[in-house]
Inverse folding.
């Protein structure tokens, strides 16, 4: 797990065990996307289906006749939490040509999506009338599994390499004078924004591409986002479809630990 701790991301080559799971997950993902009950997940003028927790997989990751979620990336993810994770329902994120289109966003938010890939750290929720940031959904990691073929420039996930160290240091400094039991209620907005700016200036932006059977892990504190659809890029008719598993951690102390 050296690469993940050092770089903030790690890619896994084609794995037959994972490819088997993908063959079973893809039709279930298509059904979830077509379900009118999930139509509210369409964003950005129809160019992004956000699909949070829409895959009806079991706690062992199985879907249909796939058997439990297995493979090298899955084992590496398990090593991070010291056990086989109980898998939450996967997010199915689908990006289509033309992403992003402006819809329901301020000009500033759309500009940030376009020029900074809507970069964020998972778990820092915007709350209250002033959209202040609080640590409320600390994930153990982000495991991304490609479900369709896509070009490397078809809106890949991007990660700021090494950003997890910058984010960790900034948040620990912001929380230093507060007892851990109050951390969910500490407003970390200013520290987070300053750390994000520092990441843009000092960390290389890496595009992480995967084909079906391949996967990647993103460090839980790494700054990441989605690139706009590249000029002339193509993907399967389904679009660029990724399943993301993001199991929640119990303690913010563990989330911020090395
Ligand atoms: Fe994210």
């Amino acid at each position: 797990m050296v690469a993940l701790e050092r770089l903030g991301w790690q890619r896994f080559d084609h794995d037959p065990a994972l490819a088997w799971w993908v063959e079973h997950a893809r039709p279930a993902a298509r059904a979830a996307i077509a379900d009118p009950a999930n139509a509210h997940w369409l964003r950005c003028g129809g160019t992004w289906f956000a699909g949070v927790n829409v895959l009806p997989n079991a706690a062992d990751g199985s879907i249909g006749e796939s058997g439990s979620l297995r493979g090298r990336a899955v084992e590496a993810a398990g090593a991070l939490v010291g056990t086989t994770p109980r898998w939450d329902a996967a997010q199915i994120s689908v990006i289509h040509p033309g992403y992003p289109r402006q819809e329901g966003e301020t000009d500033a938010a759309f500009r940030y999506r376009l020029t900074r890939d809507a970069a964020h750290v998972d778990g820092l929720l915007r709350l209250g009338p002033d959209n202040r940031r609080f640590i409320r959904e600390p994930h153990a990691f982000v495991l991304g599994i490609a479900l369709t073929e896509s070009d490397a420039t078809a809106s890949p996930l991007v990660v700021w390499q090494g950003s997890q160290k910058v984010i960790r240091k900034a948040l620990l400094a912001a929380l230093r004078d507060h007892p851990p039991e109050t951390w969910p209620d500490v407003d970390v907005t200013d520290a987070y924004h300053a750390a994000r700016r520092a990441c843009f200036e000092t960390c290389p932006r890496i595009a992480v591409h995967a084909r079906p059977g391949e996967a990647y892990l993103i460090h839980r504190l790494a700054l990441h986002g989605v690139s706009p659809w590249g000029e002339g890029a193509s993907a399967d008719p389904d679009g660029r479809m990724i399943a993301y598993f993001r199991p929640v951690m119990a303690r913010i102390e563990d989330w911020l630990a090395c």
